[in-house]
Amino acid sequence: MREEVALSQPYVVRYVGGPLDGRVDSLPCVPEDPKQTVTYVHLHGGPKIVHVYDLSYAVEYGCEYRLRAEEA
Predict the structure, then answer these.
(1) Do residues 42 and 30 make contact, with C-beta atoms less than 8 angstroms apart?
(2) Which residues, including other chains, have CB under 8 Å from residue 4's CB and lie 6 or more apart?
(3) In a structure prediction context, what are the per-residue pLDDT tens digits for the chain, which is 72 residues long?
(4) What pTM value is reported for the model?
């Protein structure tokens, strides 16, 4: 069983690159099993645009998702 980690500050998830660049989500506790990837889909009347973010850790505040480079 996993013990909850008490944080003096919220656990912060940041997004780097793409349409979510600069977005910050605060979570009340450390996620037990964070998603390895996050997919963001634009549905705006035109073609569907998909952006994929990969998890990387930032010890000083939590984790961040970085935009995956497009394959050539």
Answers:
(1) no
(2) 29
(3) 444 444 466 788 999 999 999 999 998 888 888 889 999 998 888 889 999 999 998 767 778 999 999 765
(4) 0.75
Q: Extract the tokens encoding 55.
A: 């998890």
Q: How many residues does the chain have?
A: 72
The contacts of residue 64 (CB under 8 Å, 6+ apart) are: 13, 14, 15, 16, 55, 56, 57, 58
Neighbours of 15 (CB within 10 A): 20
User: What residue spans define the domains of the chain?
Assistant: 11-67
Residue whose pair of structure tokens reads 């660049």 in the numeric block: 21
